[in-house]
Design brief:
By secondary structure, this protein is an alpha/beta fold. It folds into two domains: about 120 residues, Rossmann fold (3-Layer(aba) Sandwich); about 150 residues, 3-Layer(aba) Sandwich (Rossmann fold). Helices cover about 45% and strands about 20% of the residues. Helix 3 runs parallel beside helix 4, helix 5 runs parallel beside helix 6 and helix 7 runs parallel beside helix 8. The structure holds beta-D-galactofuranose (GZL) and zinc ion. The site of zinc ion (ZN) has 5 residues, from loops.
Length: about 325
C-alpha cells in the first residue's frame, strides 16, 4: 500500500515538473508578443541607468514585446547565467550589453545553436566568429577619445609640460579600451605630456574619489596636475570631489577635467567651468535595437554595425537650454 502512495506521489511530482518547465517556455506564452531577453551590465553610472530606461521604453507590450530584463550587477558571470536562462526559456531575441570584451564565445555559441539571434549593444564582444551575433549597436569609443585628445593638443599647444592623470573605466570594456588607446596614442605623439598616474575608477564616482584621494595623499610633494582625463562622468564627479577636497580648483586657471557621456549633471558642471571638455556618449540606444528586431521580424537583414552620432561640449558652448532639452 505504502509503495503505491509513494509511486503516486513521485508521478504527480514528475507531472508538475513537466508542466512548469514547458510553461516557463517564454515563446509559448498565450500571446503573440515578441519575447526579448536583455542582459544589462548593471547600474554603475547615470549613463547606464539612461541606457536601461531607453531599452525598457521601447520593449513594451503596447509595442508588441514582452521584455525579460536582468541586471548583472557588473559581473560577467551573471550575464552568462541570464543568457542561458533566456535560451532555456526559448526567447525570440537576446540583447546583451557586455561588461567587457572577452569570454563570450561559448555562451553566444549556445544561443546560436538554439537559433536565437543575439544583438550586442553599447560595448563590444571580442569573439573568433562574428556570426555569433546578428548586429552591434554602439559607439566608436576610440573616436570619442580622439575628440578629447585633439582638444588637449589645442588647449596645451604652448605648454612646456602637461601633467596628466588618467582615470580609466571598467578595465576590459570597449569604452575603456577605446578611450584609453586614444589617450595613449596622443601621449606617444606629445613628448611634453607626462602621464603622472593611471588609476582605475571603474566608471563609478565612489571608486574614483577613493583612488584620486589616495593618489594625492600618498604623493609626498603636492602633485602638479594639469589634466584629469576621466573615462566617464561619474568618475569625473569623484575626481572633482577629491581635487577640491585637497585644495585644487577645476577649470580656467586650474585643473582641466575631461569627461565622457555628457549627462545632465556633467553638462551643469561644464557650464560652471569645472569640466573643461565633455564628450557625448549616447545611451539612448533602445530605438536602434528595436529597429534591428523590427527589421528581422519584417524579413529584412539589419546592418551588422550601427554607430550613434555624438558631439562634444565646452563651457563656451553648453547652455541651460541645451541641458534642459537633453533626454538623459
Ligand atoms: C559607454 C558605456 C560606458 C559609459 C559609462 O558606452 O559603456 O559605461 O561611458 C558606463 O558611464 O558605465
Ligand atoms: Zn559613446
Amino acid at each position: 500500500m505504502m509503495r503505491k502512495i509513494i509511486s503516486l506521489l513521485v508521478l504527480t511530482l514528475l507531472a508538475c515538473c513537466i508542466i512548469c518547465s514547458c510553461s516557463s517556455d517564454a515563446s509559448s506564452g498565450d500571446d503573440d508578443l515578441i519575447v526579448v531577453g536583455v542582459s544589462q551590465v548593471g547600474a554603475e553610472s547615470d549613463w547606464r541607468i539612461a541606457n536601461t530606461e531607453s531599452t525598457k521604453a521601447v520593449f513594451t507590450e503596447e509595442n508588441g514585446y514582452r521584455l525579460l530584463f536582468d541586471d548583472a550587477k557588473q559581473m560577467q558571470e551573471n550575464q552568462f547565467s541570464a543568457i542561458r536562462k533566456y535560451i532555456q526559456q526559448k526567447v525570440d531575441y537576446i540583447v546583451v550589453m557586455p561588461i567587457s570584451e572577452e569570454g563570450w564565445d561559448a555562451v553566444l555559441q549556445e544561443a546560436k545553436e538554439a537559433g536565437i539571434p543575439v544583438i550586442i549593444v553599447d560595448r563590444m564582444v571580442n569573439v573568433d566568429d562574428e556570426d555569433l551575433f546578428t548586429a552591434h549597436v554602439g559607439a566608436d569609443f576610440y573616436l570619442e577619445g580622439q575628440k578629447a585628445t585633439e582638444w588637449m593638443t589645442e588647449e596645451f599647444a604652448d605648454a612646456e609640460e602637461v601633467n596628466i592623470i588618467h582615470i580609466q573605466g571598467t578595465i576590459g570594456s570597449t569604452a575603456q579600451l577605446g578611450r584609453t588607446q586614444a589617450l595613449e596614442d596622443a601621449l606617444a605623439e606629445n613628448s611634453n605630456w607626462n602621464l603622472i598616474a593611471q588609476l582605475d575608477g571603474d566608471f563609478t564616482q565612489a571608486k574614483t574619489y577613493e583612488v584620486m584621494s589616495d593618489y594625492i595623499i600618498n604623493s609626498g610633494t603636492r602633485p602638479v596636475i594639469d589634466v584629469v582625463y576621466c573615462e566617464n562622468d561619474n568618475s569625473a564627479f569623484g575626481a572633482i570631489e577629491a581635487l577640491e577636497k585637497y585644495g585644487y580648483t577645476c577649470g580656467e586657471g586650474g585643473v582641466k577635467v575631461i569627461s565622457f557621456d555628457a549627462t545632465k549633471q556633467a553638462l551643469e558642471l561644464c557650464m560652471e567651468g569645472k569640466i573643461s571638455f565633455e564628450v557625448e556618449c549616447n545611451p539612448m540606444l533602445g530605438p536602434l535595437v528595436k529597429n534591428v528586431i523590427d527589421t528581422i521580424e519584417a524579413g529584412g537583414v539589419p546592418s551588422k554595425y550601427q554607430y550613434v552620432d555624438e558631439t562634444v561640449f565646452t563651457p563656451d558652448t553648453v547652455t541651460q537650454e541645451i541641458i534642459d532639452s537633453r533626454e538623459y
